[in-house]
Design a protein that fits this description.
Two copies of one chain form a homodimer.
Chain A (H helix, E strand, L loop, with lengths): L11 H13 L4 H11 L6 H13 L3 E4 L6 E4 L3 H17 L3 H11 L4 H16 L1
Antiparallel strand pairs in A: 1-2
The first copy, chain A, binds a DNA duplex (30 and 30 nucleotides) through helix 1 and helix 3.
Chain lengths: 130, 130
DNA sequence: TTGCATTTACGAAACTTTTCGTATATCATT
DNA sequence: AATGATATACGAAAAGTTTCGTAAATGCAA
């Protein structure tokens, strides 16, 4: 049983920040801003990142510890739940709700390693056994 | 070998229009607008749909036959190519590029029928042989 | 042919998301 | 205490997307 907090869905820019927080754990604005600028060619200003993270905190996507001068931010949105919600929206919008079409497309396009295929096959078996 | 036309990616509202055109084939603004309003609770004005389709035509996502007074619009963006491009962007943004994670999530959440599972298994076998 | 309904054209308003300028506070160093 | 570097707060500009009001053109019916 997972509690459903029903957070708003993150925008694209917000999602990039969440990805970093999910991977790195609690972080400062400076750290996130540097990570973002490693990933992209276009330089993002520090205050831009700050503002986004403040907005995300208002939306409860993040929380922060303000004890020290340098605030430390924490992802409140759970990765799996967020992905699930985004995926549903995406399947509806781009594949008219057919998750299978999406899976076929995803498997077809990418080259997938044998290990990954095995993972997927295992999951399918598990589903078949019910 | 498929020609790459490299069209801009459609916005959400544009994608809804494309979905209808992909399914129904060449259509008028009135028809699209009615379909949209069947699908949604919120009423969308006729000129709103018209404007969007005009913009999409400028972007080459659509083309139109203007011979008769009532223009007939045609999807230029190919469904499979568009889905592929959108999927790549989505996998990167939400699953950090891991198509396998996305597939696992998609299979895990939705209940998938035995037929669909069989389809997927067949595709996996094909990939493994290929 | 006059008038009504329907269509397209055009521009701009309304919203949403992203970006940043500027002000102010805090900390460390001298 | 003064200086410089770094932090947060706030508001608003900039950019992107969606919506629609209004005007002008076209076709149809009386």
């Amino acid at each position: 049983m997972s509690k459903k907090s029903n957070l708003p869905q993150p925008t694209d820019a917000e999602l990039e920040i969440l990805q970093i927080l999910w991977e790195a754990g609690p972080s400062t604005v400076r750290f996130i801003n540097e990570k973002l600028n490693e990933q992209q060619e276009k330089e993002i200003g520090y205050t831009t990142t700050l503002k986004l993270m403040q907005i995300m905190t208002e939306k409860k996507l993040l929380s922060r510890n303000t004890e020290s001068r340098t605030h430390v931010y924490l992802a409140e949105a759970v990765q799996g739940d967020t992905q699930k919600a985004l995926l549903k929206k995406f399947v509806d919008a781009a594949f008219q709700g057919s998750a299978t079409s999406l899976v076929m497309q995803a498997l077809g396009n990418h080259q997938t390693s044998q290990e990954e295929l095995d993972e997927i096959k295992a999951l399918i078996e598990k589903i078949e056994k019910g």
